[in-house]
Write a structure and sequence with these properties.
By secondary structure, the protein is an alpha/beta fold. Strands 1, 2, 3, 4, 5, 6, 7, 8, 9 and 10 form a ten-stranded mixed beta sheet that branches. Helix content is 43%, strand content 19%. It has two domains: 2-176, NAD(P)-binding Rossmann-like Domain (Rossmann fold, 3-Layer(aba) Sandwich); 180-300, N-(1-d-carboxylethyl)-l-norvaline Dehydrogenase, domain 2 (Orthogonal Bundle), CATH 1.10.1040.10. It contains twelve helices and ten strands. The model has no long low-confidence stretch (mean pLDDT 96). It has helices at 10-21, 32-41, 80-86, 106-114, 156-167, 178-199, 203-208, 210-229, 238-246, 256-263, 273-283, 288-297, and strands at 2-6, 25-29, 43-46, 51-54, 57-59, 70-73, 96-99, 119-132, 135-148, 171-174. Bound molecules: NADPH dihydro-nicotinamide-adenine-dinucleotide phosphate and ketopantoate. Ketopantoate binds next to β8 and α6.
């Protein structure tokens, strides 16, 4: 199976690098200094327990790869449109496309661009980021992939990809209900990213403090309520299940959005808390915790604002 990974960052780099290290036929579509480093030195993959460098193929010219069997999209949500336009040469009538991005609208963008039959469902649980060009670092032990066809079928393409992941020692699960699994991930993500970003702390201090813990619980609860109102089969108790899951995480575990905030990058909040707030308004479910997160992060959503010029009175 020939695989192209568009976006070689925390997620694309970790999962793509693991596949490449196990001998899978992987090519990264990357750009800038990161691309140069991948070409010159390979992909360095760091974690608390591991430091390995994997030689990888990488390009900024998808046309040079030609059609592949599977395209994995792993760019930030604000880059989706540009990325999908650029990968047209990778997609033939028998190519499958899968997104490891966050949110519940990511697969609609793939369907619109390539047709529903091409789209394989997927999501991942991991904390990983680019720490310098060519270097991807994972925090904590969590690194899980969930894949599935939207009709629940166990197709050849699904089995082949899952088999490659297992050979690469990636913790992969095949879900018979990938749409629901995507919403379940969304519940966790909206809460974790909202709380870690507004509190500006990783999960350890947030879960230990009663008020920030209550904020986290409220965010989980609102996404569950909105999902249920839209007919997603999530139990109300799933919110407390996610809170209990947070108690199992490494104290330093954080969200990709809080990392973006700390770096002054753009934020995915409009696709996360913004979607919960919008869908909540549509179906009459109040979302005060998500609205608070959106208000608190509003000035950072397009990247850190310029430092305010404060006039210093002359002495
Ligand atoms: N990081 C995490 O722990 C997790 C992230 N996710 C989700 O996965 C998605 C990716 O996140 P993450 O891995 O953190 O993102 P990163 O920013 O680490 O990586 C994305 C990479 O894609 C590059 N890129 C963007 N557009 C293109 C393009 N058209 N062609 C080639 N390269 C491109 C970016 O380059 P440049 O830097 O130049 O923009 C960057 O190197 C997001 O939706 C995120 O929410 C899901 C689970 C966990
Ligand atoms: C919540 C988490 C860490 C789980 O993978 C995530 O998806 C993100 O921060 O982007």
């Amino acid at each position: 199976m020939r695989i192209a990974i568009v976006g070689a960052g925390g997620v694309g780099g970790y999962f793509g690098g693991s596949l490449a290290a196990a001998g899978a036929d992987v090519t990264f579509v990357a750009r800038g200094a990161h691309l140069e480093a991948l070409r010159a030195r390979g992909l360095r993959m760091l974690s608390d327990r591991d430091d390995r460098t994997v030689p990888v193929r990488a390009t900024d010219a998808p046309g040079s790869i030609g059609p592949v069997d599977l395209v994995i999209v792993a760019v930030k949500l604000w880059d989706t449109e540009g990325a999908l336009r650029s990968i047209a040469p990778l997609v033939s009538p028998r190519t499958a496309v899968l997104s490891l991005q966050n949110g519940v609208a990511k697969d609609d963008a793939l369907r619109e661009a390539f047709g529903a039959d091409r789209v394989l469902g997927a999501l991942c649980y991991i904390g990983a980021t680019i720490v310098e060009p060519g270097v991807v670092k994972r925090t904590g032990a969590l690194a899980k992939l969930v894949v599935g066809e939207f009709d629940g079928a166990r197709t050849a393409r699904l089995e082949e990809f899952a088999g490659l992941c297992r050979r690469a020692e990636i913790d992969v699960a095949e879900s018979p209900d990938i749409a629901r699994a995507t919403w379940e991930k969304f519940v966790f993500l909206v809460g974790l990213s909202g709380a870690t970003s507004v509190v500006r702390q990783p999960i350890g201090p947030i879960r230990a403090n009663p008020r920030s813990r209550a904020l986290l619980a409220a965010l989980f609860g609102e996404t569950v309520a909105v999902g249920r109102a839209r007919g997603v089969g999530i139990d109300t108790a799933f919110a407390s299940d996610r809170l209990a899951f947070c108690d199992t995480l490494d104290v330093a575990f954080t969200s990709s959005m809080s990392t973006d905030l700390a770096r002054g990058n753009r934020l995915e909040a409009p696709w996360l808390q913004g979607v919960v707030s919008r869908l909540g308004a549509e179906c009459g479910v109040p979302t005060p915790a998500d609205d608070f997160v959106l208000d608190a992060l509003a000035v950072y959503v397009d990247g850190a604002p310029d430092a305010p010029r404060v006039a210093v009175p002359a002495r």
